[in-house]
Design brief:
Number of strands: 3
Helix content: 40-55%
Radius of gyration: 15 Å
Shape: elongated
Structural class: alpha+beta
Strand order of the largest sheet: 1-3-2
Strand content: 5-15%
Distance between the termini: 50 Å
């Protein structure tokens, strides 16, 4: 079982740190704290979540594009 710290998860899965914390606190991914108090997250859980997530793309008017 491979585990990642929250900072490793942010880099590898291109997520915002708050998103990682929310996934942990809402128990969408399995995590536990190590002896130093850092969260450790199972890589397999993050991969499963990453496959299911829907990435929202901004609408053209939101990014200021002109037709």
């Amino acid at each position: 079982m491979q585990v990642l710290t929250t900072s490793e998860a942010v880099r590898q899965f291109q997520m915002h740190p708050a998103t990682v914390l929310r996934l942990i606190l809402t128990q969408r991914v399995s995590a536990h704290k190590d002896a130093n108090g850092k969260w450790l997250i199972r890589r397999s859980d993050l991969e499963r979540w990453n496959k299911q997530r829907i990435r929202r793309t901004p609408k053209l008017e939101e990014v200021g594009a002109t037709a």
